Predict the 3D structure of the following.
Amino acid sequence: MKIDPNGDTCNIPGKPYNSMNSDFGGDLIKARFGHCPDAAGRHVIGVLLADDHHRPILVDGKPVTALVTVTTK
């Protein structure tokens, strides 16, 4: 999971993502907007389906992704 996936400004320092549970999975994806230079405002949350080794799952040769736009205060 990445916040604003077109860049890396909201990533956890030293990680290529923002999800707090990407390394161990779980039913709930947790993110921290506090890593963003400006946490308040319009953001895009991107989710990529990956295997246990962080390799993207491909369907018809394309990664399985979802994007949602949110506004934070």
